[in-house]
Amino acid sequence: MKFAHVAAKTMCKTALEIGAGLGHLTHLLAERFQRVIAIEKDESLSREMLNLMPSLDNVEIINMDASALDLENVPGVPPLDPADLVVVGNLPYMITSVILLNLFEQRRLFSNAILGIQQEVADRLCATPGSRAAGRLTLLLHAFMDVRKMFDLPPDAYVPRPRVSSSVIKLTPLDRPRIEIPSEAMFRKVVATAFTQRRKMLAKALVSNSLCQDLDCARQLLTKAGIDPKRRGETLSLDEISRLSMLLY
Fold first, then answer.
1. CA dist 148 to 117, 140, 170, 174, Å?
2. Number of independent structural domains in the chain
3. Could you tell me the residue range of the domain that residue 193 belongs to?
4. I need a labelling partner for 209 at 20 to 30 A (CA). Which of 77, 103, 198, 217 fits?
């Protein structure tokens, strides 16, 4: 109930639900939105859901893999208005990062995303960039979106009951990046470099990922950006990654 209420507060007219299952959340969304598009990969669950909610004429059930979701080309659905679309869903734990990255790539195509994910992952995504808990996706999301934890959910809130607790987060795409980014491609390459070799000193990681020709070049570049070359990439703040990206670009 609280999940659907938070989604409804976005004031959007259309809710696209990822991983609808048997439609427990779908029912609640149908009471609050003019239109609900329910995405479910499991064909048997999709058929069961059709049988359970034949009277809900504002619900469309789409049988497809949500990890490959293209918001501009949802099968059988006319183009959706980003300003009126909220993405909702309890994400499967095994493919949470895949779906989050897919939504990040399509952030201009929806107004908000209200998502149930593993609590540990939610805490990592909401961590301050540069802190020990932050990861690659943390920095990408924080640079381009507002990331907020709304509330936690105990294991018994789900059927079947998982072994871990969950949290509901809200992602809101920003009109412009939080920091100066002259090239998104370069920014993402620097973030990837910082976290794919997070135990290496940053100067060595820049050389390993072909962003600098040699260690002398890397040390000079980092010094110019106001960053100690001996630091590890995972400790960088958004502002520091912005400065480094601009110099490399």
1. 13, 14, 5, 13
2. 2
3. 184-248
4. 103
